[in-house]
Amino acid sequence: MSKTNRALKKVANEAAVAAAPRLKRMSSSLWVDVFIVFVTGVLFAVAWPTLQVTHHVPAGVQPVIAGLAALPLLLIRANPALGWAISAAGALVIPLVFERTDDYDFPWQVVHVMVIMALLLAVSMRSPLAVVGVSWMATALLFLANAPGQDGRGWAVGLTALVLFGLLIRWLVLSRRELARQEEVNEVERARRAILEEKARIARDLHDVVAHHMSLVVVQAQSAPYRIEDVSPAAQAEFESIGATARDALNEIRGMLGVLRSDGQLAEDAPMPGLDRIDELVEGSRRAGMQVQVDRIGMPERLSDSAGLTMYRILQESLSNAARHAPGAPVRVTLGRDGGLATLAVVNAPPVGAAPSAVADHAGGHGITGMRDRASSVGGSLTAQPRPDGGFEVLARVPAVPGIG
């Protein structure tokens, strides 16, 4: 239970660390929205009471006109193009409908001018270039047509500079994002190269240690009848069985080495043993002197490649354990189904004699743990326990199809 709690705590901590940047971004975005709402409220509060100073507007309509001048700023993040369109439409209509006061010669309130310029800047930074061009031209024409005297030209030049500034910021941001994305790709590639180098090192070590010794076993087993005089037919058959088993193991090792040396893209296409090779596995155990009986009881019609490989490896390890720890004992293998699960039971009787000391001394003790890991990796389970009669039982349950069980 303590291991489970530690694992859950570790997962929670990792999730919290991963979510921290996202929460920070959400918090920053929320504060920006609050600031925009606050500024819009201030501008509306300024535009409403000062509207009667700039234009002849009926009292009941003043909140609407003030809202048309200030409230489009609320769209500056969500949809700046729509906010600009509303503000520009208001700037087009107001001078035509409402007359200016005698002391005010500009067609719009200062608040309206500030909002439309802020929205035009946002459009130039975020909207498609076609929308930027239309917004810039329409705003420049709007000021050229309505600004008093020669002021329209100055406003047009100023608006052009504003749009160019927005485009510059836009391109700077895009270039930094592209640089960050490229750095991320480079980091992933560096990590991938490091993994490939580590896999290549593991493959070299396996080849130098395991494959080398297995090759020597094959050579010794094949040459023993010629190197040793008066080899009986039974001993010669035993040497042939040892050589065949060692060759099979060597072929599997070479296959795994090929996958390790590859970049991982061919791993799915690498030939992997499944239930179709269980008979070969059992026959190899029988050649080694084991008594193995196989029963098939209602196997699932569909069995995924991962489930088949898991069942094969569990059976392989179970037979190896039985050969080491219960030499001479009969072994019963039962393949069946339990709903959507494929089941494998391997039961061996008590050992007839003691396990060879060399095998017992060199047994690593990780076989059952490895079998449990294999079963859990495909959503299954495995139990391994002694039997009351002194034997041993391994029971694996594996989903027949990924996602079932």
Description:
Helix content is 66%, strand content 9%. Strands 1-2-3-5-4 form a 5-stranded mixed sheet, with helices on one face. It has 11 helices and 5 strands. Residues 265-269 and 355-364 have low confidence and may be disordered. Among the domains are: 2-148, no CATH class; 274-405, Heat Shock Protein 90 (2-Layer Sandwich), CATH 3.30.565. The chain is elongated, with a radius of gyration of 39 Å.
Tell me the layout of helices and strands.
Elements: H1 2-54, H2 62-70, H3 80-97, H4 110-126, H5 129-146, H6 151-227, H7 233-261, H8 278-287, E1 292-297, H9 305-325, E2 331-338, E3 341-348, H10 357-362, H11 367-377, E4 381-386, E5 392-399
Parallel strand pairs: 1-2
Antiparallel strand pairs: 2-3, 3-5, 4-5
Beginning-to-end CA distance, first to last residue: 24 Å
Helicity range of the residues?
A: 55-70%
What topology, given as strand order, has the largest sheet? 1-2-3-5-4
What is the strand content? 5-15%
Spans of at least 5 consecutive residues whose pLDDT stays below 50 are 265-269, 355-364
Summary keywords:
5 strands; 11 helices; 9% strand; single chain; 405 residues; alpha+beta; Heat Shock Protein 90
In short:
Pfam families: HisKA_3. It contains 11 helices and 5 strands, in the order ααααααααβαββααββ. With 405 residues, the protein is an alpha+beta fold.
